[in-house]
């Protein structure tokens, strides 16, 4: 169920170093049973949407931190999950790159209609969310 209905984006991108950006996004789809052709088509669409259409054949070591994180976002959404969990997806990035990656994530979440829970300590990014909550003394509290 988790593999099919939930996508994960971590603070560290956790990409497979020996595979290209395209292959990293294709991998979860092929594990799920999608054909190589169909997985490649969806991966290209997602990476293109995230502005990485020109970086498909590059390995993670050849990508910037922001590009690596956008590949991780595409990978998390590759199987069209119902829920996306993102744990500090911009935590390792500089402010400008954080803003760019967060914008790309928000646009893709909106475009796909996936429900997203994004954990961040960046209050400027959190302020851009539709709904914000925090945990105080073990309780979930809605923020204004």
> CATH topology, anyone?
Rossmann fold
The total tally of domains equals 1
The residue ranges in which pLDDT falls below 50 over 5 or more consecutive positions are none
User: Over all CA atoms, what is the radius of gyration?
Assistant: 15 Å
What topology, given as strand order, has the largest sheet? 1-2-3
CATH evolutionary superfamily: P-loop containing nucleotide triphosphate hydrolases
The appropriate CATH architecture is 3-Layer(aba) Sandwich
Please tally the helical runs, counting DSSP H or I stretches of 4 or more residues.
Answer: 6
Relative helix content: 40-55%
What is the name of the CATH class?
Answer: Alpha Beta
The main β sheet shows up as: 3 strands, parallel
N-to-C SSE string, H for helix and E for strand: HEHHHEHEHEE
Mean pLDDT: 90
User: Which percent band covers the strand fraction?
Assistant: 15-25%
Structural class determined from secondary elements: alpha/beta
Strands, count: 5
Determine the N-to-C terminus distance: 34 Å
Overall 3D form: globular
């Amino acid at each position: 169920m988790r593999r099919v209905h939930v996508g994960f984006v971590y603070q560290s991108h956790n990409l497979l170093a020996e595979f290209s950006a395209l292959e990293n996004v294709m991998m979860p789809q092929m594990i799920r049973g999608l054909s190589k052709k169909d997985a490649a088509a969806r991966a290209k669409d997602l990476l293109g949407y995230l502005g990485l259409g020109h970086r498909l054949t590059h390995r993670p070591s050849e990508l910037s931190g922001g590009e690596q994180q956008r590949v991780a976002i595409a990978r998390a959404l590759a199987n069209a999950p119902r829920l996306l969990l993102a744990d500090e997806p911009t935590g390792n990035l500089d402010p400008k790159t954080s803003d760019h990656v967060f914008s790309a994530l928000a646009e893709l979440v909106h475009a796909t209609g996936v429900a997203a829970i994004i954990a961040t300590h960046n209050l400027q990014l959190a302020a851009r969310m539709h709904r914000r909550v925090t945990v105080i003394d073990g309780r979930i509290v809605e923020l204004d």
